[in-house]
Amino acid sequence: MTAAGQPRAPARLSRPGFTDARRAADLLAGLRLWDLGADHPVDKAAGRVVEALARVGDPDLALLALVRLVEVAPDADELLARLAGSAGLRGRLLGVLGASQALGDHLVANPGQWRRLVSEDNAASRPTALALTRELCRAAGVDPDEPDGPAGGAGSAEPTGQGGTPAAVRALRTAYRGALLDLTGRDLTGSAAMEDAAAELSDLAAATLTAALALARSGLAVEAPECRLAVIGLGKCGGRELNYVSDVDVVFVAEPPAEGVSDDAALQTATHLATEMMRICALVAWPVDAALRPEGKSGALVRTLTSHESYYRRWARTWEFQALLKMRPVAGDADLGRRYVEALQPLVWTAAEREGFVEDVQQMRRRVEETLPAAIASRELKLGPGGLRDVEFAVQLLQLVHGRAEESLRSPTTLSALQALSAGGYVGRADAETLAAAYRFLRTVEHRLQLQRLRRTHLLPEDVAERRWLARSLGFSAGGGSSALELFDAEHAAHAREVRRLHEKLFYRPLLLAVARVPGEELRMSPEAAGGRLGALGYADPDGALRHIEALTAGVTRKASMQRLLLPAMLRILADSPAPDAGLLAYRHVSEQLGSSPWYLRLLRDEGQVAERLATLLGSSRYVADLIARAPEALRLLADDDELLPRPGAALASAMCSTAARHEEPAAAVLAVRRLRRHELLRIACADLLERCDVEDVGTALSAVATATLQAALTVAHREVADDGAELPTRFAVIALGRLGGGELGYGSDADVMFVHDPLPEVSEQVAGDAAHAVAEQLRALLAAPAPDPPLLVDAGLRPEGRNGPLVRSLASYREYYARWSSVWEAQALLRAAPVAGDPDLGRRFIELIDPIRYPAAGLSAADATEIRRIKARVDAERLPRGADPATHTKLGRGGLGDVEWTVQMLQLQHAARVPALRSASTLAALRSAAEAGLLQADQAAALEASWRFATRCRNAIMLVRGRAGDQLPRTGRDLAGVARAVGYPPGRDPGVFLDDYRRAARRARGVVEKVFYASL
Q: Are 674 and 730 spatial neighbours (Cβ–Cβ below 8 Å)?
């Protein structure tokens, strides 16, 4: 006793989870399980019962229900004795009482049913579907062996009962709840996995539908016309993954059983049966929902098989085929149900070929999310982001697209379908495991919520106490400094995040759109038919294409399975490219190189538009195909648009110099730098062909890559020439000229440069010159050495005296040369001079030296202008290749690059001294400045710029398409089509249009050149 004379509070009952420990003690004492005075169980057996109560979801609820059950049970003493002596019964009975108030009420109303939970044999295995049907039919008083014969008719058997009378419905309801009680006991004690529980619930639903239909049939009038009626389960019932409480989705199909009965008469009887069956089921267990039938709630409740077929062939919408994916006969005439499924399944597995099918399914999911109130979205287990629908829609869409040719994917059960998708390579193993684990978790949570009151819900409760009960019922317990509720909330949030991530990845996978566009017959073709189809698609060598396909898909490996998934879409994308045969061969080479790399095929399958982009690139560009063949790991660039953006020059230079510094051998150092350069060239080429950057961006990016390569290679050359890390006896700089200097490099351009040095104090000219010459030679040799990577040819031919002059000069020598010997063409060459590597101060001083030469204060004399025109005429005449078409030669042709650049350079030489804006190494920048200064009319500048941009794009495209540099546009054939596509013309457009456009732009530019370049000064 306490000091106040009151009994001691039962503190021991507070710890196990009883919210009202004193009340719990009183109730346990009433059951003769608790000693109030001693504050502990009366004996060890009682202690086991108390411990079992403490482990259930809601100990207070379980204890109260047990007290109520004992009060009404005629065999209460036996119940308590068995409860104390059987661990299995304790776990099952108390688990049910602590998880479900509704089943507790059922036991109190039917106290003898606690015995259903006694048998260990029943607890170890679930009943068969037939056993459940027999049990429920017998309870309802109908014949379990004749549940689906023809109904009605004067020649049929007399009614076996009075139909769905209140007594029959009550008996069926009691039997249904008893079977549900059995399952719940197994479920809560772990004897039934989530998928087993869902399957048993589906079997129980089918048994209920069968019994209800038999009841409805037994109440038919003898004179009712005969009919055959089949009930087709859809949704979770059809997929054998039903919840504890859910609408059961069905459609009804009926036929006359024999001649002499009209369709209308049979349908009248069938409609009466279906309506009565739905009424009975709603009273027994759950609503039967027939809203997924043709025309929905406005359509006939029951149709003939012919009517169903006609509707689905002519009128059905996308979502209706998705609903049929899980169809199976669940009650009524088994043969008619089988024929219904056989008739409609082919329509389901060709639905993905309908126009806009994938987009329709995706839009339907988005509409569901948009209608979901934001306040409850995070608590929605079914419809919310990261919920069950995210899993189900992703799996179903993959099934409908890929299951056209792969029958193993056609399971109506989500987890089985997910496993098949994983086995076939359509979903990654890790992704499938993550989705399956999340799906099981979310379904289990949904089951526990519905069990509590046997009400349909999939909304997590807001109330903390209810969520705490939910966490305990799921087996969560406090640990690691966190409560059971906190652990549950964390796990739910983690699963929801993963489901949403994978839903976005799978459901919106661009490959789905590409595969869905492939006609189903192409997915199932014989080799002979496939060869013909490949030829029709545009493959010049269908037999060769078939050999590539067979090599990629042979065998039963996961790699082969994934290739079978990818190739239908890849082949069609390649077929739209200018060179499908070459593209397929390149794809085979890349796949053979990377086939053993686990990331490669996953990347093509999962990541954005990689597969589509890869096929487009390989079928369009020999240059890209060659780069990818040497660096296939760079394919990861295609997964992210941001990765396709050219990298800044400073970042490139830092990366390349750091890479070079990690290698002691010069050849190895520059080889590593060239590998980085290859990667960057591939990045730029991909961005160019995929229209992620324009022609100016390409020139700037290629120039930045070349500059960074020169800077890194120069550090290696310095290190090699200077022994033991000693300082060079001279300062050294690389001056870019031509396209490199102007930041307008093309894919096939050499790096035009000059080398300048400046001896250190007290170093002789000879020693300094020898060292500088060695550095320049070493730089050129390292970058031109044979290697798997494209060389960067360093061309010093524009230096003073050309190839006859010294490779390297000192700053003083340049000063003397330009003061005494410089000609106008050299001043013109200096217009695009810019320091790119080496000593920055020396580079700056060199620019200061040449500025008065390239921007003469007095402008350009008449004689110098004439000399420039003469040189250009000579270049045009002598360098234009024999047989070249001047109208379509991008460099030396009329209105081509040479015409535009020489015109702009003439204006710079004439006016840059007084118009500082013209002092730019960039052709386009100088051209725009000339227009702003009034030196060109706006339309003249626009014509020159348009032609320069077009010609530059074409020149780049020739390199991309052929894999080798060229200036002449192809006249006909695949190369012409390829260049047109690479320039940006859409597939299917006549390449002659491209040629006409080019000639038109060049003619306009040439007209400006005639007026400006050849005008009198």
A: no
Least confident residue range of 309-323, 391-405, 432-446, 566-580 = 566-580
Distance between CA atoms of 640 and 679, rounded to whole angstroms?
15
Integer Cα distance of 435 and 507 in angstroms = 13
Angle at 185 between CA 180 and CA 188, to 5 degrees: 115
Write phi, then psi, for 329 (nearest 5 degrees).
Answer: -65, 130
Q: Worst-scoring range by mean pLDDT, 138-152, 355-369, 957-971?
A: 138-152
User: How distant, in Å, are the alpha carbons of 315, 331, 345, 829 from that of 309?
Assistant: 10, 20, 11, 78
CA distance 924 to 919: 12
Of the candidates 89, 69, 225, 81, the one whose C-alpha atom is nearest the C-alpha of residue 156 is 225
CA distance linking residue 176 with residue 178, whole number of Å: 5
Q: pLDDT tens digits, residue range 817-863?
A: 999 988 899 999 999 999 999 999 999 999 999 999 999 999 999 89
For residue 358, give the nearest of 407, 412, 322, 306 by alpha carbon. 322
Q: Are 386 and 392 in contact (CB under 8 A)?
A: no
Most confident range, picked from 122-136, 231-245, 362-376, 973-987: 231-245
Q: What angle is formed at CA 652 by the lines to CA 650 and CA 657, rounded to 5 degrees?
A: 95
Question: Whole-model pTM?
Answer: 0.77
Tokens of 656: 């390349």
936, two tokens: 């060109």
Between the alpha carbon of residue 124 and those of residues 100, 117, 121, the distances in Å are: 21, 11, 5
Spatial distance between the Cα atoms of 386 and 367, rounded to a whole number of angstroms: 15
Residue 392 CA: distances (Å) to CA of 202, 215, 413, 504, 666 = 17, 35, 10, 13, 58
The distance from CA 644 to its chain's CA centroid, rounded to whole angstroms, is: 18
CA of 629: how far to CAs of 353, 560, 578, in Å?
Answer: 34, 20, 19
Question: Contact, 569 vs 562, CB < 8 A?
Answer: no
Nearest Cα to Cα of residue 912 among 844, 832, 857, 848:
857
Angle of helix 166-188 relative to helix 263-284, nearest 10 degrees, comes to 60
Q: Which of 52, 55, 56, 28 is nearest to 42 (CA)?
A: 28
Per residue in 643-662, pLDDT tens?
999 999 999 999 999 999 99
Phi and psi angles of residue 270, each rounded to the nearest 5 degrees, phi first: -65, -40
Cα 879 → chain centroid: 51
In angstroms, the CA 284 to CA 164 distance is: 11
Phi, psi (5° rounding) for residue 729? Answer: -80, 5
